[in-house]
Hints:
By secondary structure, this protein is an all-alpha fold. It is built from 16 helices and three strands. The protein has a three-stranded antiparallel sheet. A hairpin with a 4-residue loop joins β1 and β2. α8 packs antiparallel against α13 and α12 runs parallel beside α14. The radius of gyration is 21 Å and the shape is globular. It starts with 17 loop residues before the first strand and ends in a 19-residue tail after the last helix. The mean pLDDT is 96. Bound molecules: acetyl coenzyme *A.
Amino acid sequence: MIMSTDLADVAVAKTKLCFIDGDEGLLEYRGHEVGKLAKNHVFEEVVHLLLIGHLPSVEELFSFKNKMASYRSLPEPVKEIINTIPTDVDMLSVLRTAISTLGEFSFPPTVEQSLSICTKIPSIIAYRYNRVCKRKPVEPSNHLGHTANYLYMIKGTQPELEQVQALEAYLISTLEHGMNPSTFAARVITSTRADIVSSVSAAISALKGPLHGGALSQISMNLQEIGSKENTERWLREKIEAGKRIMGFGHRVYKYRDPRVLPLKNIAIKLSGNDSKLDLATHVEEMTLQLLKEYKPNKQFITNVEFYAAALLNAVGFDNNLLTATFAVSRSVGWCAHSIEAANGPLIYPQSVYSGPRIGL
Ligand code: ACO
């Protein structure tokens, strides 16, 4: 038996969805480089690529966009359940509960089921966000694309093009990433032949953790706590010496560079204008990499996608309550694509090595 407690060097699935080369820093969805997809395509086109298998023609895109828009409205029971959840419960827990309220979908997972779930996630987040902020709920607009509609439901006003484009680049860049923990969780659930709602709710639970999607809101809070360039080194040394992990740094797969970082950093800088928060973020990045090298010389550290994603989402106008939830808006497409792909696969059931006491020994 091969023993691996973190599965770092274990391949658990064959997939046609995503190619990653951690040494070269390459990421492709179905043979398309992610940077180019984020620059040249809209969210719905990349969803079509992932779920249907190819980039859509103009006609296909038109009907696919309409189909996606038609699924956005929340059923009343979902709203009622959200209304009963205390306002201090975090957004990911609310999202998980609301998704479960959609009920059991038939097995195997389908594209239609995936679209129904992925388009309702922004609606759930916006409904909850407006409720907690004591604002009127904003019904989805069928005239707007997926990204613009999400912004519209959160802000309650027609979104600016620059913000839509920035958010769209983020969503496309983080839509899929191989066997990351949340996608793996989704595939494990699908392997038991449970329905896709169960897979997605498990994936949301995995995304919530601070070593995965939960890092996003922590990064933003860290930057607020650091507050100034002068305070950066002291703050970082204290955390590292206390054995704490610095969120937004390190990656299980990428060894030298995460290909999503630089494009998102450039967008965040452009969107932020002269905002000093971005200046602080770049200083914190440089100082963190320098100090991690000093304290842990045997490990190679990189900035991961989350670091500037947090800055980008803040610059779009999203507060900390929306950051990890917005990651779910994009990654839910990957979860669903993997659930469809894994539906005929084997039951995932690894072994464990018992290390406790035995009867009579
Ligand atoms: N800050 C400080 N120390 C770190 C960090 C970090 N960000 N990341 C790893 N380390 C240290 C660990 O404490 C450990 O130290 P030790 O050997 O002295 O105990 C060592 O590096 C190895 O840690 P692993 O968890 O085995 O390293 P791995 O490369 O597998 O970890 C991970 C990847 C989990 C992302 C890690 O770098 C981390 O926790 N980063 C911070 C959280 C984060 O940013 N998560 C988002 C990841 S991207 C995404 O999910 C989309």
